[in-house]
Design a protein that fits this description.
about 350 residues, alpha/beta, nine-stranded mixed beta sheet, about 55% helix, disordered C terminus
């Protein structure tokens, strides 16, 4: 069983006397910075010259500095830039300004797990990863709650790295909900696998294939959209609230029988074998190398695939139908960039 920590397990003095630099002010960056500030932590935001986020951070009452200055001044440096940009920013602006006894934090283990960043031996290397997008981290904190978080320690130079990670997680609200101990390797590999095989890649491919199957059989696109995409939220919400068994209890007996007998024919042994292949590619670094190379070369294939997805018939049908249901988007905000890129 995982080690789970709460507010009573935290030594808050480990963060209260530290100067913290948040590098990046995207979805996660703004939430971390504001929550830390309101928890009484001495925080500043480090941004690249000309960043469009500088005005937003200043208007929120936060001190804004260059990445180099923020790093040099701080004891704890939280890296909240996009994975593919982080290594270059670290080498140019962060590494030259680190001192022994500093702590460098991450909200995702990608750059440490795949050796894109190698911090010096004299600094703590920790992860604090809220399990939710930045707007939720911020909103729940303001409401008096919090989003569960993961912590990990890759390098404990000071002997207090784990306690510091817990204190940081507490200061952004995580200990109110629960903080689970993991490792950089476990977090990175499971996160990438979940995104690729289930949450994003697996789900979107399944939805599109189901939609195409109904259209090719002569059914109306609008009806196919409702059955294969729109109602997915209802099922996911039930699983989110009650688990898979709770969802099956809530749907009709007909739906449950179809789930139990036909689901394994869709996600069969061949699909699971492909999932294992994808996991192996992650574990062996093949995906990381491919993604970094794609980004460095201009992302031509990424943009091609993105455009093809945007042009899929389900998008046109969905846009027309969602226009009939304005309540879907009321009060919502974009949650893109949950890694906390600088924007």
């Amino acid at each position: 069983m995982a080690n789970i920590y709460y507010e009573a397990d935290v030594n808050r003095s480990l963060i209260s006397d530290k100067k913290v630099a948040i590098l990046g002010y995207g979805s996660q960056g703004h939430a971390h910075a504001l929550n830390l500030k309101e928890s009484g932590v001495d925080v500043r935001v480090g941004l690249r010259d000309g960043s469009s986020s500088a005005a937003k951070a200043s208007e929120a009452g936060l001190a804004v500095q260059s990445i180099a200055d923020a790093t040099a001044e701080a004891d704890v440096i939280m890296m909240l830039m996009p994975d593919t940009e982080m290594g270059g920013i670290y080498t140019e602006h962060v590494e030259p300004n680190l001192s022994d006894g500093n702590a460098i934090f991450f909200a995702h283990g990608f750059n440490i797990r795949f050796d894109l960043i190698t911090p010096p031996a004299g600094v703590d290397v920790c992860m604090v990863a809220p399990k939710g997008p930045g707007h939720l981290v911020r909103r729940t904190y303001v409401e008096g709650g919090g989003v569960p978080a993961l912590i990990a320690v890759e390098q404990d130079a000071t002997g207090t790295a784990k306690g510091l990670a817990l204190a940081y997680a507490d200061a952004i609200g995580g200990a109110r909900a629960g903080v689970i101990e993991t490792t950089f390797t476990e977090e990175t590999e499971t996160d990438l696998f979940g995104e690729q095989a289930v949450l994003c890649g697996g789900t979107t491919a399944l939805v599109q294939a189901g939609f195409e199957t109904l259209i090719e059989a002569g059914y109306q696109p609008e009806v196919a959209y409702f059955e294969c995409l729109h109602e997915l939220k209802l099922i996911v919400d039930l699983m989110y609230e009650e688990g898979i068994a709770g969802m099956r209890y809530s749907v009709s007996d007909t739906a449950e029988y179809g789930d139990l007998t036909r689901g394994p024919r869709i996600v069969n042994d061949a699909v699971k074998a492909e999932m294992k292949t994808i996991l192996t590619e992650i574990q062996e670094g093949q995906f990381a190398e491919e993604w970094v190379a794609e980004s460095r070369s201009g992302r031509a294939n990424f943009h091609k695939l993105e455009a093809e997805g945007h042009d899929h018939p389900i998008e046109k049908v969905g846009a027309d139908l969602r226009a009939m249901m304005p309540w879907i988007s009321q009060g919502k905000q974009s949650v893109r960039d949950t890694s906390g890129g600088q924007g």
